[in-house]
Amino acid sequence: MKAVTRIDAMAAQDMQAGNASGPVTTVDRAAVAQACAQGASVVTPNRRLARALKREFDQAQVDAGKAVWTSADVLPWDAFLIRCLQEAGCEGQVLSPLQDLVLWREVIAQSALGALLLSDAAARSAQQAWALLHDYRLGHRLRELGATEDQRVFRDWASVYAQRLRGLDAVAPAQAATALQAAAGRGQWRPPQPVVLAGFDALTPQQQALLETVRAQGVQVRHAAVPVVAGAAQVLACADAASQWRAAAAWARARLGARPDCRLGIVVPDLGTHRAAIAHALAEALVPALLLAPDEDAARPFNLSLGEPLADAPLVATVLTVLRALAAPLALPEAGMLLRSPFLGDAQAEAVRRARLDRALRDSGAAELDLVRLRRLAARATDDGSWHGDAAPLLAARLARVVARRDGWRRAAPSVWAERFFGVLSDLGVPGERTLSSAEFQTYVRLRELPASLATLDRVLGALSLQDAVALVRRVAADTVFQPESPDVPVQVLGALEAQHLQFDGLWVTQMTDQHWPAAVTPNPLVPLAWQRAARMPGASIEEVQAQARRALTRWSASGELVLSYPQQDGDRRLLPSPVLRGMRLADADALALAPTPALARALRTDAVMEGAADAGPAVRAEPPVAVTGGTHLFADQAACAFRGFALHRLRARELPEAEAGLDAADRGALLHATMAHVWRALRTHAALLAASDAGVTQMAGDAAHDALTLFLRRRPDALGARAQDLERRRLARTAHAWLQVERARPPFEVIAIEAPVRVVLGGLALSITPDRIDRLADGSVLIIDYKSRSFSPAAWLGTRPDEPQLPLYAVTCEQDVAGAAFAVLAPGKLQFKALVRDGVELPGAKAVTSDRAEMQRPGWPGLLADWREELERLAADYLAGAAEVAPKRKTSCQFCPLPLLCRLEARRGDGERLALGGAGDAGDAGGQGTHDD
User: Which of 29, 211, 473, 741 would you call most buried, defined as having the most Cβ atoms within 10 angstroms of its Cβ?
Assistant: First the structure.
């Protein structure tokens, strides 16, 4: 038997507490249908209910077999007022909501506190306070405000705002009903047909006054409401929010499976926060194939009612970025977004070129980019006059027209700026040449309506600068809530207020915790709390909020099946059920008859045969030695993970680098390499170093740093500003000088090779390697040195799949007598050699290789060289054989891997073994990826 609780007790308790003005009612559908048939005007408190009642009326006509009928006159209160004001001939007197909000922003921005406040938030709060005072006919008491600093500030703002309204001969939207009442009193307006109110739990004093005036003119005004007969509710406690979404989705799946034509509602009080999670759960339960092959235009049996700011739509975001570029330079990521956008003209025809230009910008190190420079880069040509590989000539031509258009602009009214901006969009070919999806097309249509909205602001704003006009468009787009229209679907996901008075065959109300239900008390801080409570304004007292919550539950329980759920945990935090659930019995999944939600893989297996594939690619078919690129990095990647080696060096997969201003770790490492190369090209021998004075060494280090940085900036002129260049030059010189003091303590040596590329063959691979440095020691043997900008241990060279195979590779392919391999660690405060050397070789910090090292299979230095050769040849053989197993040597091997989206290892490991993934390269390698080896 199901565990259910009747809601009648709640309603009775609510009435006894005096928290309701009468019995709980809902819309009388029969009365509304009759009113619509008789031509009456049906007025609702919101647009959603108006659409629902009109849809129900139209469906009833279809069911009655009618082919033609008079359209029902159903509209929300605000639209009813606008129409009536138009009939009275005074609609131009009332400001639009946008004009009103902009006027409040102007008043606040020009006030003494304007520079200290977030004017958007303050304007909304002031606009709401003004509306409350006039909805409840308390506007005449504005001068009494002053109990708190906030109220005194609002009083002053309101005084200036009222003066501005008088100067404009305008009325605020919150006073539209009063203006209409005055027009009726003057005989300018009388409703032509009866008025039927549907879905109003209570009327504000301003609404009551207007309707009394209408009645006094002999027009019938009545409520279409019937008392609610409370039903039963089932309560489900879920482990957490994710379990709750899955349970609600499984419920919807089960009910639709039993009755495909039923109408279901899922109420989420904080829908904005959980929109993505609930959509994913519903998709997995109802249309799992869309998770594998997303299709924006595919039909879905559910709809999420919450609109999003128009500014967040990808097409509009592109437009706003274009406009922002007119007024100021763009950050590099924003410029890259423009280059990759499909909404600019010729985006498809020039996709590859724009992608290359984006990559070039990411490598440039520039912090920002203006339109002029972007146009210049897009128009680059080679010496023979052909387009550079990174050029985007079609985009360059469009940007040239935009820049030329912008150069003639001066301050102007909002309507003029609207015309100018949409001329820019025409120059840039917005919305692009590809066919738009349904949602994108609707977004574009809404975007094209913005000029009309901007033009109305001429009434409240003067001439604007380019910067102010761009900021205005961004605010208007952010203030515009937009949701693409969708066909009528059986499952509606909506907020608590939107669900009032709607009819469903089943309703699931989520998030029934003490934090979400009842809603928090939210009085307006600019209106005295005593006034709000005395007038019983919404959200002003806990009693009123609780009463509203109970009335909602009572009303919902009458329409059909009602399930109330709440999560018991949020991470480590325990959640408590809403107090309205106190004393109600809990149901379980069996009692609710929830349909099991199939995992995506399980759902796909029912329709498809799963194929397995070995983690191996095709073997290299060329005759050895096989010429390869990548140098020592090929061996390092193959050792870290066979798949990484295969993907990077056989498939040539590459991660698009992040756009970063200035230098990254690889850049700094490359500069250190170059600085040390300049130093030793000048010195050449240990004897020359000892002979140099400290001042001479200081000068030498400074010159080397200067030369290295100069060469770097020829390639990347935008990477560093003047101040940053000076700081980097000092860092390089300081590090080089300190390192030379370490080198002074060595026995005599001569530098015989500095970043000299060598072509070698190993294990059937022919490759080019570039040791950082090779020193000849006093006995004629050589020491191979690799610079590192952070500390490393020689243990990284030992064992199978060595972490750092560069030096072993250099050592076994060197044709001279190699006596040691050394990391020259240039980390601040840790300047030292980390080396393995043949017994008898002197080097500060080096360890002599003896025959008792556990990591070695063969004894002594010759044995170590043999071990290295064997392991490197094995790695080469794996590469040639096409080994591609996703098998990282250890978890940390994945830390800097650039291919997590390609190998999908994280998805296979599951949530229990998530890794903290880092960037794309090893920040510890002073040279970075691919700096020295081909």
Answer: 473
Measured CA distances, 469 to 371, 540, 741 (Å):
18, 38, 60
Digit-coded pLDDT (tens) for 181-228: 888 888 888 877 899 999 898 899 999 999 999 888 888 899 988 887
* Dihedral over Cα of 97, 317, 275, 522: its sign: negative
Q: Of 204, 70, 49, which Cα lies nearest the Cα of 132? A: 204
CB 274 within 8 A of CB 268: yes
Q: What pLDDT score does 513 carry?
A: 92
Percent of the chain residues topping a pLDDT of 90: 45
Single-letter amino acid code for the residue at 111: S
Bridge partner residues of 287 (DSSP): none
Sign of torsion over alpha carbons 595, 598, 604, 610? negative
> Which amino acid does the sequence have at 118?
L
Tell me the C-alpha to C-alpha distance, in Å, between residue 55 and each of 31, 39, 439, 501: 15, 16, 22, 14
Q: What integer pLDDT is reported at residue 596 of this predicted model?
A: 66
Mean of all residue pLDDT scores within the chain: 85
Cα separation values, 363 from 333, 374, 658, Å: 12, 14, 9
Range ranked top by mean pLDDT from 114-128, 575-589, 695-709: 695-709
Kindly list the distances between the CA atom of residue 176 and the CA atoms of 48, 172, 173, 752, in Å, as whole numbers in the listed order. Answer: 22, 7, 5, 89
476 neighbors 450 (Cβ within 8 angstroms): yes
Checking if the pLDDT of 565 tops 50, the result is: yes
Residue 710 pLDDT greater than 60, yes or no: yes
C-alpha distances out from residue 255 to 491, 504, 588, Å: 10, 12, 16
The pLDDT assigned to 13 comes to: 41
Tokens describing residue 466: 């380019």
This prediction has a pTM of 0.76
On the question of pLDDT at 276 being above 90, the answer is no
| Whether residue 921 has pLDDT greater than 60 | no
Relative to beta strand 561-570, strand 232-240 is: parallel
Judged by average pLDDT, the poorest of 498-507, 701-710, 770-779, 860-869 is 498-507
pLDDT at 420: 93
Q: Three-state SS for 683?
A: helix
Q: 431: cis peptide before it, omega within 30°?
A: yes
Of the chain, the end-to-end C-alpha distance in Å amounts to 74
- How many C-alpha atoms does 507 have within 13 Å on its Cβ side? 26
Least confident range of 237-246, 287-296, 453-462, 717-726: 287-296
Predicted pLDDT at 14:
40
DSSP state of 568: E
d(CA 818, CA 532): 88
Whether residue 250 contacts residue 595, with contact meaning beta carbons closer than 8 Å, is answered with yes
Q: Which residues of 772-810 are buried (b: 16+ CB within 10 A; e: fewer)?
A: bbbbbbeeebbbbbbbbbbebebebbbeebbbbbbbbbb
CA distances to 379, 392, 405, 668 from 399, rounded to whole Å, are 10, 11, 10, 34
Report the distance separating Cα 262 and Cα 241, nearest Å.
26
Helix axes 542-559 and 8-16, enclosed angle (nearest 10): 150
Report the C-alpha gap between 133 and 140 in whole angstroms.
Answer: 9
CA nearest to 238, candidates 512, 568, 515: 568
pLDDT of residue 396: 92
* Ramachandran angles phi, psi of 466, nearest 5°: -60, -45
* Residue 576, CA distances (Å) to 13, 209, 232, 267, 573 in order: 22, 43, 22, 19, 10
DSSP helix/strand/coil, 820 = strand
List alpha helices for 259-388, DSSP H. Answer: 271-286, 289-292, 314-327, 332-340, 351-364, 371-378
Beta bridge partners of 94: 171
